[in-house]
Write the structure tokens for this entry.
Amino acid sequence: MANKKIIVIGSGIGGLFTAIKLAQQGYKVQIIEARNKAGGFASDITFNNFSFDSSFYILFDKPGLEWAMQQIHVNIHDITNFKLVDKVYHVLHENETEIAFHKNIEDTATILEQKFKGSASTYKSFLSHVTKIHQTLQPLSYKAHPNFMDMLFSNVLLHIPFLTGSLGNVLERSHLPQAVQKALGVWALISGQPLNNSVSTLSLIPSLMHHSGAYYPMGGIASLTNALTTIAEKLEIEITYNTKVKSICTKNKVATGITTKAGETVAADGIISNYSGIGTYSELVDDFSESEKQKLNQQPLQSVGLCVYLAVKGINPNYYLRFKVNGKKCIAFVQPGIIDPSLEKEGWLPAKLFTHLDNEVALNQEEQIKMMDELVKDRWWQTHISEYKILHSQTTFNWGTEYNLYRNSMNPIMSPEFMLKKHIPYKSTYIQNLYHAGSSTALGQGISLCAISGIHAANSLAKFLI
Ligand SMILES: Cc1cc2nc3c(=O)[nH]c(=O)nc-3n(C[C@H](O)[C@H](O)[C@H](O)COP(=O)(O)OP(=O)(O)OC[C@H]3O[C@@H](n4cnc5c(N)ncnc54)[C@H](O)[C@@H]3O)c2cc1C
């Protein structure tokens, strides 16, 4: 194994996990990263001395991340301090109805009951329904390729209607009031996804939130990435920064190495791409049929959204995450200072405003900045805020350039169709020796799913190379 060389393209969460897992198995691993630091979306960004999470808000699936950590023999508590969030999120609807979700089931049920008589017990039965499904499905996510027998023994077959349906279907069947359904579906709405075109697995979030909890990493998500980078360096993984892979070289449909933008060629026995799955074929693989490219390119991509990084004086009460929902529109206001008051500097605290941008809405850079200026003027998020400064407005073009995104977007929209038929497998179905890790392969964009996918990609490649 020691003489087998693996190249990992990109050092996002998926790239780091896959590289560490392979290095621990004795492979010689090189990560090639276009940026000057590791982490991809899971990194930090600084404006006016304030450090922000570039993207991250909250970790719902701590058990999934812990599983991935165990696979690389690391105890999550030794490297990152994840703080449990008690008052998780608040939603203001267009008709002024306010709903909030707390870690504690009884508190949440009481809030719902105060707004909608009878909804406490309906919420509890919905929760018990999705918790049963979650308990069945979670172990399967730890298998790279669950086979029929795995599914049979885990009773997953009973949940086929759930898996093939949409988030909208599951919420409708809950008989909860519309406002509660929408508040539960806020994770789809903030990504610009209608509930009826979103994966049903998003309905499992309440089960995670109430049972395992929702977490915020103290020091930001970069604390996790930095710890993983240190582990990678100790394992003598070579991390080459500021280097963009231009192409994946192939011979007779077998990947043989990569060429960098600067023209260097590096041979490899295996390649794992942490770049966009579609982008890997559309832009990197040197010999890929135009017709296949076109098919992949037809998949609708998820917009990365617009983000305003702010410094604020004063703080809104209670909720780390607040959403305002109006029809299909959704805005999030994120206040990490509520969880970590040490972020304060001379009375100022960092905060973020975020909204989705439909990909079909092709606004240019100036129009997107104008849209964010309008967003900031909304009084809703400023209830207890006496002053604010805009530190930076992040357009989809900024995201694309700074994070090396394919078509300035995230991976394909996580629709039921994508989940069932079109997702990118860990092992390439087109090119031998080529594998994928990260949100391209994960059935969701969450950090934990990207970490799990990194483990599966590494195990799939190792199995092939034996
Ligand atoms: C606004 C926003 C909010 C989010 N909030 C949450 C949240 O609250 N909770 C949560 O769990 N998840 C959240 N996510 C999702 C999560 O952050 C991402 O899905 C996850 O970090 C992606 O990891 P990845 O492994 O796919 O790699 P990525 O982060 O996509 O990293 C890929 C890396 O590859 C590098 N690269 C690309 N092309 C090349 C090339 N040609 N050569 C060399 N290097 C290259 C890039 O520079 C990058 O470093 C959020 C995402 C966004 C955008």
The chain has a mean pLDDT of 93.
